[in-house]
Each structure stands twice: as structure tokens, then as C-alpha cells.
Design a protein that fits this description.
Elements: E1 8-11, H1 17-28, E2 33-38, E3 50-53, H2 59-68, E4 74-77, H3 92-119, E5 123-128, H4 139-159, E6 164-170, H5 189-202, E7 206-208, H6 211-218, H7 224-227
Parallel strand pairs: 1-2, 1-4, 2-3, 4-5, 5-6, 6-7
Helix pairs in contact: 1-5, 2-3, 3-4
């Protein structure tokens, strides 16, 4: 278990959506300092947070952030993109963009901040996945989140002996800019953030933040037609 009270946390994509709610929730739970990162740190409006420029796909930017935030004990990998790609019809560069941000971004930040967290006595990493980690309905976005899920599972094994716990957050539609055009039930970012932070404090391996996510995960052990009924003639 990891105490948030008194901790120093870095949240990628901390200026809006789930990231903004995470920053607010961290302060409510007593975090000592929160670095809220964004490509443009001026978009971070919470005056309690430390705005920090970060492009998670740029190794130099990640290294600079790790140098500036040398007191971090908890890393939250929240930054993500969705290019809405089709594997057959979209430009391959768009497929790569999903992977560069959603898979390689958290990998770069983990590699940079694990030594920092370890040096500070251990701590926690939270990776924000998606229900689409488990169902291929969104092209390369689904694939990149599935790859991040696998990365998280591997990191959990690698980091446990080093005093760093790892939690994966899986969630369906959340009421953010990314889902503005989607007409479907959506979770509140504040509720999702609260569940995620409770997962950190309880040492949960995974947090399933809504009924849809729990339903899809339960279907992984069933015949593939359960998750993909459109395949059944």
C-alpha cells in the first residue's frame, strides 16, 4: 500500500479531463506536492499544482522532467491520444501516433522515474488503461492500450522487488474532451479519479472503474463470440 498523504506525485496530462480530476483528488487526500504536466504548462489552471512542460513521446523532454521533479514518489501515466484509426485504411503514421503516446510514452516516463522513486524510498506507478485494452473496437487505440496493459503487468513483476507498486486503471467512457462526440453513458472524471487514487492507497493491482469495464473483463474467459457477437452469423 502507498500513502498519498505527504507524497510527491507527477501526473502526465494533468491539465484537463481525468488528469485534472486526479490532481484535485491528490490534494484532497493530502499530497504534499503535485506536478501537473502538459505540452503547454499554461493549460494547468490548478494554482496548487506545479506546472511542468512534458511531451511524453520525446525522450529529452522526459529526461528534463525527471531532472526537475527529482522528489517524486508516485508517477501517474494519464496522458493519451486517440487517433480513431482503421488498421486497413488509416495512414500508418496515425497508427504509430497512438503507440508513441499510449505505449511508448508511459514506457519512457517509467524508465526515467523508476530510479527517482527508488531513490526516494519507493512508491507507486498508476497507468491509465481503458476498457478498450480488452476489446478491439477502436483500431490502433485499442491495440496501444492492450499493449500498455501488458507493459503494466510486466512492470509490476519487475518493480515489486524494488519497492514500487503498480496499478492499472481500466475505464469505459468518461465525460472528457476525448469523448465529447460520443453519445453514450459516461463516468464522471471525479469519480474515476477517486477510484484510481483509492486503488493506489489500497495497493490494488487493477481498478475497474465502471460496470462496462467489469462486464468486458469477465468476457475475456468466454468464447470470443461473447465479446464480438457481430462475428456470429
Amino acid at each position: 500500500m502507498t500513502a498519498i498523504e505527504g507524497s510527491v506525485v507527477l501526473v502526465t496530462g494533468g491539465g484537463r479531463g481525468i488528469g485534472k480530476a486526479l490532481v484535485e483528488g491528490l490534494f484532497e487526500r493530502g499530497a504534499k506536492k503535485v506536478y501537473a504536466t502538459a505540452r503547454d504548462p499554461r493549460t494547468v489552471k490548478d494554482t496548487r499544482a506545479v506546472p511542468l512542460a512534458l511531451e511524453v513521446t520525446d525522450p529529452a523532454s522526459v529526461a528534463a522532467a525527471a531532472e526537475q521533479a527529482g522528489d517524486v514518489t508516485i508517477l501517474i501515466n494519464n496522458a493519451g491520444v486517440s487517433m480513431q484509426t482503421s488498421f486497413l485504411d488509416s495512414p500508418v503514421d496515425d497508427v504509430r501516433k497512438d503507440f508513441e503516446t499510449n505505449f511508448y510514452g508511459p514506457l519512457l516516463t517509467a524508465r526515467a522515474f523508476v530510479p527517482v522513486i527508488e531513490r526516494n524510498g519507493g512508491g507507486h506507478i498508476l497507468n491509465v488503461h481503458s476498457v478498450l485494452s480488452w476489446i478491439g473496437l477502436a483500431g490502433s487505440y485499442s491495440a496501444s492500450k492492450a499493449a500498455l496493459w501488458s507493459q503494466t503487468n510486466s512492470l509490476r513483476l519487475d518493480l515489486a522487488p524494488r519497492g514500487i507498486s503498480v496499478t492499472g486503471l481500466h475505464v469505459g467512457y468518461v465525460d472528457t474532451d476525448m469523448t465529447a462526440a460520443i453519445d453514450a453513458p459516461k463516468s464522471s472524471p471525479v469519480d474515476v479519479a477517486a477510484q484510481a487514487l483509492a486503488g493506489i492507497e489500497s495497493g490494488a493491482f487493477e481498478v475497474l472503474a465502471d460496470d462496462l469495464t467489469r462486464q468486458v473483463k469477465s468476457g475475456l474467459s468466454a468464447d470470443i463470440s461473447v465479446l464480438y457477437p457481430q462475428l456470429v452469423a
